[in-house]
Specification:
The chain is α/β, with parallel strands linked by helices and 487 residues long. The chain is built from 18 helices and 12 strands. The protein has 2 domains: 247 residues, no CATH class; 214 residues, Nitrilase/N-carbamoyl-D-aminoacid amidohydrolase, CATH 3.60.110. The longest helix is centred in the C-terminal third of the chain and has 30 residues.
Length: 487
């Protein structure tokens, strides 16, 4: 009788095919609207509609159906945004889209299974946790990790990192799904409280999970923005695989146009080897620092994809290899260490291109005291404008998360100089071969890790435990049905 009551309670309000398809269409429409154009930043708020529709889609009569609706939503959201994958991977792009979509399907399946097993009131608090856990795992923790198209990147510039609150990109997703869940299931929870089906402990736990960020970042509101900051002038030159003899001439032009610039930056893979003597001589002659991407030999057949820093005396004063070489590309070896350049202006960290997309890379630089990130990047013009536009969403979020500026110089656009609050203060166009990016950025005394860096791993662990519990309980149910002994 108890099982029958639970079953009736769980099935109430579940979506039929027609409303499920409408929710699918809403999720796909809102997601693509949020990501389609940078000309209308406010459209990023459409991501709330995506979260709403996705949570509703989890309310299915079977876990399998929830998974397939989530898979369809993920595929129809990700494939249009990552259409440029076809240029890079040909037909294999379809497989990569499905891999990304799988994680949305997994989220829907876990939430649906939790609702069917424990009821909406008891399972609702898991929704923001499961979303955050799944997003963190697919973005940071496995071989095909890929953080683009995260909810945190879709939000308008003023919302990225929630400003001075430093919530973080995963924390944004947690809060959005928490708000949507509270709006959808508040009434159900209240009915359960009145009928005494929800314990006091569960109520307290839900309250803590929803409002923990608000409590924690109250001290951040008291931070003053009048801290002493040290200015540094940088200029970058966009060039895609330039001939080596052209580089000093372009540096001369950049210096003539920006005589006060102290650091000059060139993109990833500007050089097909180490720094040549001509560039060292240029630094020595003009008493300027140069950051340039090249290849540091590693044995006879391999290399480290490296950002070199050439000093005013023509000597290489620092170098950093790419920490996460791109999968399926010849992109060098992972370096043995990750460090910080103690420059005359402060501590500067380096992310080589895609490294900026991974918080586990940038977090380490902030832990070591980075006050500025310089990001030499190779974005090939052939990949198309939308790929470049998607990539521009990363730097403002990172800057706002940590409260440190970022100078991101790409081979063919769109290069960015970003202030500590995530505002893009200067930008170079795409396509823009030979275009300059000049900016004076102020280095704060220090950066700080956003709050979600502590929350996201916990959410991943809880999600893993919940998934294991659901699988174990499903196995026991199946064993009972066929009459097998269960220990």
């Amino acid at each position: 009788m108890e099982n029958k009551t639970t079953s009736l309670k769980t099935s109430a309000g579940m979506l039929d095919w027609k409303p499920s398809c409408l929710c699918l269409a809403l999720a796909v429409g809102c997601f693509n609207a949020a990501y389609t154009s940078l000309k209308f930043p406010a459209a990023g708020l459409m991501i709330f509609g995506y979260a709403f529709a996705l949570v509703r889609l989890t309310d299915q009569p079977t876990v399998r159906r929830a998974f397939y609706f989530g898979l369809a939503a993920g595929f129809l959201c990700y494939a249009p945004q990552l259409w440029f994958f076809v240029k890079i991977f040909s037909l294999a792009a379809v497989v990569l889209w499905l891999v990304l979509a799988f994680w949305v399907g997994l989220f829907a399946a876990i939430v649906c299974g939790s609702i069917r097993r424990w009821g909406k009131a008891r399972a609702a608090w898991l929704i923001p946790i499961v979303w955050t856990g799944v997003e963190y795992f697919r973005s940071e923790l496995y071989y095909l990790k890929f953080s683009w198209l995260n909810i945190g990147y879709a939000l308008p510039e003023g919302f990225s990192g929630f400003g001075s609150l430093h919530v973080g990109m995963y924390g944004c997703g947690f809060l959005i799904f928490g708000i949507i869940t509270a709006a959808l299931y508040y009434r159900t929870a209240m009915v359960s409280i009145v009928s005494r089906r929800l314990t006091v402990v569960e109520i307290v736990l839900v309250t803590i999970l929803v409002f923990i960020f608000i409590i924690l970042f109250l001290p951040a509101l008291a931070e003053t923005k009048s801290r002493r900051n040290i200015p540094v002038s940088l200029v970058g030159i966009q060039m895609e695989f330039p001939p080596e003899n052209i580089i000093p001439k372009m540096l001369d032009k950049a210096l003539a146009k920006n005589p006060n610039a102290q650091i000059f930056v060139l993109s990833e893979y500007t050089l097909a080897g180490p720094v040549p003597d001509k560039l060292k001589e240029w630094c020595r002659t003009h008493s300027r620092y140069l950051v340039v991407g090249g290849e540091e030999p590693a044995g006879a057949t391999n290399y480290y994809n490296t950002a070199y820093v050439v000093g005013t005396n023509g000597v290489i004063v620092f170098q950093q290899g790419k920490c996460v070489p791109i999968q399926f590309f010849r992109d060098g070896l992972r370096p043995p260490r990750q460090g910080i350049w103690n420059s005359p202006w402060g501590k500067i960290g380096f992310c080589v291109c895609y490294d900026l997309s991974y918080t586990r890379v940038t977090d380490e630089l902030v832990r070591q005291g980075a006050q500025l990130l310089i990001v030499p990047t190779m974005d090939v013009e052939y990949w198309g404008r939308h790929q470049h536009e998607l990539h521009t969403r990363v730097a403002p979020v990172r800057a706002a998360e940590y409260g440190i500026p970022i100078f991101r110089l790409t081979s063919s656009g769109i290069s960015q100089a970003v202030s500590v609050d995530g505002t893009v203060v200067a930008q170079a166009p795409m396509p823009g071969n030979g275009a300059f990016l000049a900016a004076t950025l102020r280095l704060p005394p220090h950066g700080s890790l956003p709050l979600d860096r502590f929350l996201a791993p916990i959410c991943t662990a809880i999600t893993t435990l919940v998934t294991a519990a659901l699988l174990l309980l499903a196995w026991k149910d199946r064993a009972r049905k066929i009459g097998a002994p269960v220990s």
